[in-house]
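Weekly modeling sync, notes
Attendees: S.R. (lead), two postdocs, one rotation student

Agenda item 3: backlog of single-chain predictions. S.R. asked that every request posted to the team notebook include the full sequence so nobody has to chase files. The rotation student volunteered to paste the first one in as an example of the format we agreed on. Action items at the bottom.

Example entry:
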Amino acid sequence: MRVSLHNRLVALTLLVLVLPATTFGQPQATVFFDRGFAKQVKSDYDGAIADYNKCIKLDPQYTSAFSNRGIAKMAKGDYDGAIADLTLAIKLDPKDAATYTLRSLVKIAKKDYDGIIADCTQAIELNPQAADAYSTRGNARKAKGDIDGAIADYNRALKLNPDDLTTAYDLGNAYGESGLLYSALATFRQAIKRQPDYPVLWCGLGVYLSKSGQTNEAITALQQAIKIKPDYVDAWYALALIYGTSNQPEEAISAFLHALKFRPDFAEAWYKLGLVDSQGGWAKDAIAAFQHAIKINPDYAEAWCDLGVAYDMSDKIEQAITATRQAVTFKPDYASAWYNLGYYYDKSNRADDSIAAYRQAIKINPNLARAWYSLAGVYDKSGKPADSAAAMQRARELDPRLFK
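Predicted structure, as returned to the notebook:
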């Protein structure tokens, strides 16, 4: 569970908003500014913008009016307008570190990561104690693939503000994504000591305990997250995945259903539920789960492919072919789906179609040994011994275990 951009803006925007008006000689402008501020606090952004417009018309140098109008525009989703206003505020007061950080946060919505880094760097130069600038720059660096740079920034932010649990969560994830599981676990545990009732931290701890092979501890951590926040979808989903890979299908199904109770449009959870059902031999339930996933995401190639598998389990070969053809339509380079299609065509005695599908799988992945092996079988049944022998030899070279 990530903290939203809106929530992350709150602390900094409040800091900017409560700055007192200091313009002298323009009492009417100050009246409009104060009235706009009052409306903004009540989330009347249109009214606030109208009053800030009047304030700026009376006093074009009123820096706080530009800043606050930019914040109001940001709240309305007018990111270009927000950036324009914050840029004008910076032009009027280029030494205000907070406004650079604010503008960087707006740029998150536009995925302007280079712009975010530049603004945060400027904010840090003006105010080396700007913890939020470090954490925001860390997020941008992480988005650009600079995990080491992100980790360094997150650590600086936490040194300045050890109670920033959102940044602690981001740091833990960055360590985990770098394969530094010990550091990830240490980060989450340290943050939990500071705030044991923050479910996001328990969820992060559970995920990386699982990745480190500590399955029982991971389950306990995720259950703690759910105890704190019973409708915590991400924790239920992570718990379901652990149960699914720990040969606990009934517990996995229960956890998936809890996640879907709170987020019925969670296509990935429906898909994973279908996989557990398939592995348990519950083909009818698997079909229903995959169909849910596809209804939410019609071009979900993996769900189409595994729907084909579930249909095959139910001896519905034509439906299996139809579903799998949908998979390769949406994902033409899906080698496994082409392999399955070859298998279904073979089962339905459509040798030419089977050969074409297997060869397409091999074209995509020339090292797919099972496709060579199955192709050899179809060639053999089709009276093509030379082709069969060549395909069989290639399968043997790629994976001798197929012949044991």
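Discussion: group reviewed the output briefly. The two ends are 47 Å apart (CA to CA).
Action items: rotation student to repeat for the remaining queue; S.R. to check formatting next week.
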